[in-house]
Amino acid sequence: MELDPSDMTPVIHRLKRAQGQLAAVTRMIEEGSECKDVVTQLSAVSKALDRAGFAIIASGMEQCMTSPDKDLDRKELEKLFLTLA
To answer: Mean pLDDT throughout 53-79?
Structure first.
């Protein structure tokens, strides 16, 4: 199964935003920022990555369920989904 690039545009934007947030976390640590601020920013990165992963899986599930030649079965989709849980 291949993901539709047009469906992935928002995911790519979210990942790029997370990449910027992660760079900010690194910079904050290097500059000696407050622990609370670093953890808050790190949490935002983690949530952005989780949401991107869920969006990818949701798109894949939609494609699999509507595709006549289902590449992934339900168990495989469930396993993918649970890797993000």
So the answer is: 73
Q: Are 78 and 58 in contact (CB under 8 A)?
A: no
Residues 6+ apart with CB under 8 A from 28: 37, 38, 41
Residue 13 has pLDDT above 90, yes or no: yes
Which helix (H) or strand (E) segment is 38 a member of? helix 35-66
Instruction: State the pLDDT at residue 64.
Output: 66
- CA dist., res. 55 & res. 49, Å (int): 10
Biggest alpha carbon–alpha carbon distance for the chain: 55
Those residues whose C-beta lies under 8 Å from the C-beta of residue 67, and which sit 6 or more positions away, are 1
Q: Angle at CA 49, nearest 5°, toward 72 and 1?
A: 20
